[in-house]
Amino acid sequence: MDWKDKLNFAYSTNPDYKPNDEDDNTTREVVPPSKQRLIVGIERKNRGGKCVTIVKGFVGSDDEIEKLGKTLKTRCGVGGTVKDGEIIIQGEIKQKVASILQELGYRVTISG
After folding, report:
1. Which of 23, 25, 57, 89 is positioned for an S-S bond with 80, CB 3.0–4.6 A?
2. 3-state percent breakdown (helix, strand, coil) of the chain, nearest 5
């Protein structure tokens, strides 16, 4: 056993402990867009006075939300990011984002 292999070793006082080799990326069940209700709103707090459009309520894997975020950013022609299960799009464009999501088959609620 190499010293590098020992770095990933954990001790337990539980005699029945068995290490879990599953990935931390838990797979969520696949929910079709027609069954999801997304909330689209505007946020101004802690952004230096600039407005951003936020999409909340997405249920799915991290890869799927990243893909949806990229689609929204591309179709709107703006920047943005995906953080903590929310899609953040630069600018105050909630109507445009809501219409794109509806075209993709999502049920959309506009807040604010």
Report:
1. 89
2. 30, 20, 50
Give me the number of domains the chain comprises. Answer: 1
9 found inside a domain: no
Q: What is the pLDDT of residue 56?
A: 95
Please tell me the pTM assigned to this model. 0.72
CB 86 within 8 A of CB 56: yes
Q: Extract the tokens encoding 30.
A: 């696949």
| Residue-wise DSSP of 57-92 | ---S-HHHHHHHHHHHHHHHT--EEEETTEEEEESS
Within-domain flag for 12: no
Q: What value does the CA radius of gyration of the chain take, rounded to a whole number of Å?
A: 20
